């Protein structure tokens, strides 16, 4: 009742069910971390990718077992699996968002790709590698994330966008304030908002900066935000402040 034929190209219904459930569990564990941190692809997406990959792996190995005995048929269990690795890229591309020079979603895209690999391992009965990789992914997402923020915060560049009125001297004050707080400016670009009225003419100042300790960042932002000509300040992944205009 629970057997689909016999031999290496066949599998029981019970074993198929176990593999699909394990894929659901492992994919859900990684997806839960993404969901908690409000990323584009979360709990359900990772479950679907992992279960789908396991399903395709099962199909690739056992779905054509009835033809294994034919003299002119060659079985290639890796063929459909290879298409999963190639095709999963469309989900990863959908999770990547670019805002100016700041790119987000790369880690989520990579987690989707890894979860597809985990699903393929489970579908092939390669349980040890599937569980090991799941644990390593969780360590990377939880532990390495905190380590990365702590160790690399002094070396990472952020994009700062300041919207302000185009009045003489204000930009110089902003640059001076950033320098006093130890914020290093690597690039500076001024873009006009193309306003026709001189009084309401605004510009957007885009700066690529390296940020020091958090208290220095807060102090600099508070001082610059209080400048009369500054309308809004945005720092990639950190701050987004704007003034309400009458």
Q: Keywords, please?
A:
246 residues; 2 domains; five-stranded antiparallel sheet; two-stranded antiparallel sheet; 8 helices; elongated; transmembrane; transmembrane helix; cell membrane; MgtC/SapB/SrpB/YhiD_fam
Compact summary:
This protein has 246 residues and is α+β, with helices and mostly antiparallel strands. It has helices at 13-36, 43-62, 79-87, 89-95, 106-123, 127-152, 170-180, 214-225; strands at residues 97-99, 102-104, 157-165, 184-192, 202-210, 230-235, 239-242.
Question: Which strand order do you get reading across the main beta sheet?
Answer: 4-5-3-6-7
Q: What is the structural class?
A: alpha+beta
The Rg value, from CA coordinates, equals: 26 Å
**Whole-number mean pLDDT:** 77
Stretches where pLDDT is under 50 for at least 5 consecutive residues are 1-5
Provide the domain count.
2
**Secondary-structure element series:** HHHHEEHHEHEEHEE
**What is the approximate shape?**
elongated
In DSSP terms (H or I, runs of 4 or more residues), the helix count works out at 8
Fraction in helix: 40-55%
Keywords: Cell membrane, Membrane, Transmembrane, Transmembrane helix
Pfam families: MgtC (PF02308)
Membrane topology: Multi-pass membrane protein
InterPro entries: ACT-like_dom_sf, ACT_dom, MgtC/SapB/SrpB/YhiD_fam, MgtC_SapB_SrpB_YhiD_N
């Amino acid at each position: 009742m629970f057997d689909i034929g016999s031999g290496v190209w066949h599998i029981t219904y019970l074993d198929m069910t176990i593999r699909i459930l394990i894929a659901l569990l492992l994919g859900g564990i990684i997806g839960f971390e993404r969901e908690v941190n409000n990323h584009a692809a979360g709990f359900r997406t990772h479950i679907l990718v992992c279960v789908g990959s396991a399903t395709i792996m099962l199909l690739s190995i056992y779905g054509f077992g009835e033809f294994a005995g034919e003299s002119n048929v060659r079985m290639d269990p890796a063929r459909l699996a290879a298409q999963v690795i190639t095709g999963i890229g469309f989900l990863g591309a959908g999770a990547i968002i670019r805002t100016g020079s700041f790119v987000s979603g790369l880690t989520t895209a990579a987690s989707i790709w890894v979860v597809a690999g985990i699903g393929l391992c489970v579908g092939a009965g390669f349980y040890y590698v599937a569980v090991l990789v799941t644990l390593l992914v969780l360590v990377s997402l939880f532990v390495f994330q905190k380590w990365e923020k702590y160790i690399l915060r002094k070396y990472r560049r952020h994009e700062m966008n300041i919207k302000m009125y185009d009045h003489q001297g204000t930009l110089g004050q902003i640059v001076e304030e950033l320098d006093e707080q130890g914020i290093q400016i690597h690039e500076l670009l001024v873009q006009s908002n193309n306003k026709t009225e001189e009084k309401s003419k605004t510009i957007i100042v885009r700066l690529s900066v390296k940020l020091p300790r958090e208290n220095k960042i807060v102090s600099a932002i508070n001082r610059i935000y209080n400048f009369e000509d500054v309308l809004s300040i945005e720092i990639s992944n950190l701050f987004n402040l704007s003034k309400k205009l009458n």
